[in-house]
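Quick check before the chapter quiz. The format below is the same one you will see on the exam, so make sure you can read both the input and the output lines.
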Amino acid sequence: MKEAVSIGMIGDYDPERPAHQAVIAALGHAADHLSIKLDVCWLPTESMLKLRYQEELEQFAGLWAAPGSPYQRMDGALRGIQYAREMNRPFLGT
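Here is the expected output.
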């Protein structure tokens, strides 16, 4: 069985945004090259404003702030980024 890796994508997914499509494709290519199973979960910025948002974020191996601002809730995006920084979680911002 392939190793499974989960990535939490902080951002507001828009299928019409080329950058969002490209990120998913790039992650898929990387997973294929590494022979791993990759699960990408989009985390809307609004969801980062919930009281227990940390519980949602801790399930991911890494977090990525999706390209294509402005976010619907910049305060939500910043909260997710702050969590990654303070909890020393792997993080990529684009």
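If your answer matched, good. The beta strands are 4-10, 37-43, 62-65, 91-93.
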